[in-house]
């Protein structure tokens, strides 16, 4: 190449690089011009908009959020399901035993990504047509003044990637026509690969890459999203080795459908033949031994609508054990896929410079498998006129070989396993009044910055705390504006104070919860809880998953979690003044954070689900997904 041509190419390359950097900067924060513009170049003074760079040595950040995993499921927190990757991360980092979610997926995810309570970011329910309402706390549309962690980090020099479940795009916007401002790309992610809804078939997912739907390749979704995450990171590190990245890794696992290759589920053959009562006892003993729960904790009685395992006929035991074998294999396989990501980070010498948070579940274990489990998606007729438990059981026994297979399009274990997976708590997903619905384990891993390896932390935390924790640890202030839009205050409390101090008192002292009628309020170890009970008998199989779990009457309960880890002793009558104080605090929080109007499952059924079933039964089949 002759010298002149070489110079031209270099200049063009420089112009192109500048243009690319400036274009990216526009999506970040346009800097004000500080030069002088005269009539001629001689009278003018140039000023360049410099690309924003992260501080030298800034760590990569990985947030991992699993779906529908109970507190006592993983071996990392006393469970009997093998999760060696999570064990390793926790043994070289910290375990948090007093961390909380919103009790159901979309509110948890919206709160996590924004650092603000779910109703504050308009995600009191879901972004689906069947459960959103035209009120500020309920329309399912995260406002632009509630910026996400991805938006913040991208504006401070990070690349941002997301794979797996998003769950926050309104149904009306979730086509290839957009608009895309509430797709992941519109909320700060440079690249996305996964699905926009609440659940999807693991072998035939409703798959999206960036801003368009794409065809799945037939492999399990966990495999595909891990490959894509590794691809995103590898491509970025090749182009900009010193630039940090943020990865939000959010598999659909272990939400229904429970689908996994037999090599994983068959590894648990016979492991659950002794049933859910024995499972609970074993996990409870492990949790005490590991220091996960206080030594004084008492295991609650089995919930009254769950039968004793030893009272079940042999065919039911066989069926229910197979459900749990599949679930356990599904969870272990998910841990394996996270392990592939961790191994890759180690291979490219990035693991020691990566801050990893693992939230083991976006809510408690799922109660949506009913009493006898679910294998296939309900037909339109069953939505209108649900089958009896006896009919469901007969159908499941005929189709037992489909559990875990691609044909098991809605496979989910029965209710007895939900309580077992939530050991040592009483209830489960959707129950915002219960620790069983809201308490999920957290792992924090960062070899360079966490001195204690294998430490246990009992400070109170909530998903809104991860964003401020990340920002404080990185030394990044919460922005006043994002793309020119003034930002609302972050509502979470950083947990960074507890990284090096196991005995530090909790700084997150007040937290409310509300999911379609079920509610609670926490303050300084005390908790007032209200278990919503639908006013009428279920009118569909979707409704039956709501009412089956709550035997309590519609009365407030009061617990002192400092002395009663798993809410066994109701103190409402003993301390009525404390209960009134907390109920008043809940109302204050409700007004402050957009909880009004109090929309319940009754309202969802009457105003949304039943009209949808009557109008379009086929469409309704795909909407009862949580």
From TrEMBL:
Single GO MF annotation: hydrolase activity
SUPFAM superfamilies assigned: Alkaline phosphatase-like
Signal among keywords: yes
Keywords from the UniProt entry: Calcium, Hydrolase, Metal-binding, Signal
Domain Sulfatase N-terminal: 59-476
Keyword Metal-binding part of the UniProt annotation: yes
Cited CDD domains: PAS_like
Similarity remark: Belongs to the sulfatase family.
Protein name in the entry: Arylsulfatase
Organism of origin: Larkinella humicola
